[in-house]
Amino acid sequence: MSELNKEIPLIINGDANRFELHIDGHLAVIEYSMKGDVFVLLHTEVDKALEGRGIAAILTEKTFHHLESIGAKIIPLCPYIVGYLKKHPEWMRIVQNH
Fold first, then answer.
1. What residues does each domain of the chain span?
2. Using CA atoms, how far apart are residues 6 and 33, in angstroms rounded to an integer?
3. Band of residue 57 on the pLDDT scale cut at 50, 70, 90
4. Distance from CA of residue 25 to its chain's centroid?
């Protein structure tokens, strides 16, 4: 785990239906909706000022750890999340009906 990963807390913003990282005054988010008790991951967005630092991967990893810790499952609709799961198949364990 990188130092950046350890230092930045994941913010669960239930009012906005998103997981957030706040870094140097900039925002990275994974937007979701709920299908019953399953998190449907819709969109990942990282502020342009943060691009190229692996922030989307850190956000995804932190989100997956959180969701696994609460026993949640996901439906990945976001293309970034789908690609991340292909590179990290160990996380398929939290995908609904996998």
1. 3-94
2. 27
3. very high
4. 19
Fold of 3-94: Aminopeptidase (3.40.630)
Residue 52 has pLDDT above 90, yes or no: yes
How far is Cα 61 from Cα 59, in angstroms, rounded to an integer?
Answer: 6
Question: Would you state the structure tokens that stand for residue 21, as one six-digit string?
Answer: 């990282």
The encoded tokens of residue 63 equal: 């989100």
Q: How much is the pTM?
A: 0.92
Query: Which DSSP string do the residues of 55-89 spell out, in sequence order?
Result: HHHHHHHHHHHHHHHTT--EEE-SHHHHHHHHH-G
The full length of the chain comes to 98
pLDDT of residue 98: 67
Residues ≥6 apart with Cβ < 8 Å to 92: 85, 98
